TrEMBL record:
Keyword Transferase: no
PANTHER family: HOMO-OLIGOMERIC FLAVIN CONTAINING CYS DECARBOXYLASE FAMILY, PHOSPHOPANTOTHENOYLCYSTEINE DECARBOXYLASE
Annotated protein name in UniProt: Coenzyme A biosynthesis bifunctional protein CoaBC
Involved pathway(s): Cofactor biosynthesis; coenzyme A biosynthesis; CoA from (R)-pantothenate: step 2/5; Cofactor biosynthesis; coenzyme A biosynthesis; CoA from (R)-pantothenate: step 3/5
Chain positions covered by the region annotation Phosphopantothenoylcysteine decarboxylase: 1-207
One matching Pfam family: Flavoprotein
Superkingdom per UniProt: Bacteria
Length: 436
């Protein structure tokens, strides 16, 4: 059970926040709803009190003996603002404290998640975009907005994420915070995650290129050779880097739209889609120019089909004889990235191995490290049920000397943050680059 403050501001999507409150209560959390005065014009106090089973007020002048204006924030394990109106985002950026939500947000040291919701024009206005960028750089996490039907007949980017998605993000953030607190399963073995540093936006101004997913090599117009990479780990890295203030380019190879939703409306993540290894190869080198960090999480096909058939290969064309596919080796993208590396660029590779034995896994990782010449190598065991497609991962990160600098297991988001902690250490940024 965690103490969650649910801030609600005055947009139509306030009605969807009722469903979010219910999900949080049903998950066993203690929920304190803090609406703005305008939010109460959309959904009234009795609804919030009935759903949250706690008293609800907007004013700093209620329950004064309990010092409620700071106590709610101080006691919170997480503050989520959904919907976050353009006005409330601006107030957060300015640090205004003219109502209970404002004081709570200033008093809290807990993770903060906002779910913006507004018309497309308001969302895309430079004022709103600047406000969101500033909030991100302070470590505020942002979910959505999605593109879709808005109030009235409009549609476009600005629709609040679905309550279930916001709820899922809340649960992930709580799991991350728990891991950091106790040095538990999702925390790096090398030490407790420095959440204070992370919340300062330790990648502000750093350009990060991430590749994710799995390349596919065509056999004929309808078939391909592929792999089971879902892209979840790479997408989680892109999202985590953006949350820490980085400008991110995500090269996504054949990733399901539902997986990409974690970043698709994220203004700090530029999404480029690729299909084959050749497409990834030609795109990644251009994108790597100007990137301070390159993280190659994509599962790249080692081989492609020598001759791709123009027409669908049909059984009738060679009755009784199965066709033979001749494969040729693809270029080694990681090696060429290391060869063309810019000064002080940090390059991170991934090695997916189908071995259970820890020592053997690390040994294979060290051999790959020596072959590729990367700065960090994330090694994980994959198999029928691990690594690929799953929501969790277990990773060892080796530095250039082959030493394990991170050993972590947990959600792919938690693994992403542990990996980025190692990247930040490798970047050796001056204190001034860590934001304020
Ligand atoms: C019907 C209606 C719907 C609105 N929907 C939104 C919205 O989705 N997002 C938004 O930023 N503002 C919206 N507004 C404007 C906000 O209510 C207004 O900016 C208000 O000052 C927000 O105050 P608050 O952020 O303190 O809750 C809407 C206003 C009306 C009348």
């Amino acid at each position: 059970m965690k103490n969650i403050v649910l801030g609600v501001s005055g947009g139509i999507a306030a009605y969807k926040a009722v469903a979010l409150a219910r999900l949080l209560v049903e998950a066993g959390h203690e929920v304190h709803v803090v609406p703005t005065a305008d939010a109460l014009r959309f959904v009234g106090q009795p609804t919030w009190e009935a759903i949250s089973r706690n008293p609800v007020t907007t004013s700093v002048h209620d329950d004064v003996p309990e010092v409620r204006h700071v106590a709610l924030g101080q006691n919170a394990d997480l503050v989520v603002v959904a919907p976050a109106t353009a006005n409330t985002l601006a107030r957060m950026t300015a640090g205004l404290a003219d109502d209970l939500l404002g004081t709570t947000l200033l008093a809290t040291r807990a993770p903060v998640l906002v779910a913006p919701a507004m018309h497309t024009e308001m969302w895309q206005h430079p004022a709103t975009q600047d406000n969101v960028a500033i909030l991100r750089s302070r470590g505020v996490a942002v979910v959505g907005p999605e593109s879709g039907r808005l109030t009235g007949n409009d549609s476009g980017p600005g629709r609040m994420s679905e309550p279930a998605d916001i709820f899922e993000r809340v649960q992930e953030m709580l799991a991350d915070a728990r891991a950091a607190d106790v040095g538990g399963a999702a925390a790096p073995a090398t030490g407790v995650v420095d959440t204070a540093k992370r919340s300062r936006g330790d990648l502000v101004g750093v350009r990060v290129l991430v590749t994710a997913g799995g390349t596919r090599e065509p056999i004929d117009p309808v078939r391909f050779l592929g792999n089971r990479s879902s892209g979840r780990q790479g997408v989680a890295i892109a999202a985590a880097a953006a949350d820490r203030g980085a400008e991110v380019v995500l090269l996504a190879a054949n990733i399901d739209g539902a997986v990409l939703e974690a970043v698709s409306s994220d203004q700090a993540v530029r999404l480029v889609t690729v299909g084959t290894t050749a497409e990834l190869d030609s795109t990644v080198h251009a994108a790597a120019r100007g990137a301070r960090v390159v993280i190659m999480a994509a599962a790249v096909a080692d081989y492609r089909v020598a001759e791709v058939a123009d027409q669908k290969i049909r059984k009738e064309d060679s009755p009784g004889a199965a066709p033979t596919l001749t494969l040729v080796e693809n270029p080694d993208i990681l090696v060429s990235l290391v060869r063309d590396r810019q000064d002080d660029q940090v390059i991170v590779g991934f090695a997916a191995e189908t071995v259970d034995d820890e020592d053997e896994l690390l040994e294979r990782g060290r051999r790959k490290l020596a072959r590729k010449g990367v700065d960090l190598l994330a090694v994980n065991a994959v198999g029928w049920s691990e690594g690929f497609e799953s929501e969790t991962n277990e990773v060892r990160v080796l530095d250039a000397e082959g030493d394990v600098v991170v050993a972590t297991a947990g959600t792919k988001r938690a693994v992403a943050d542990a990996l980025l902690d190692a990247v930040v250490a490798e970047l050796n940024l001056p204190e001034s680059a860590l934001g304020d």
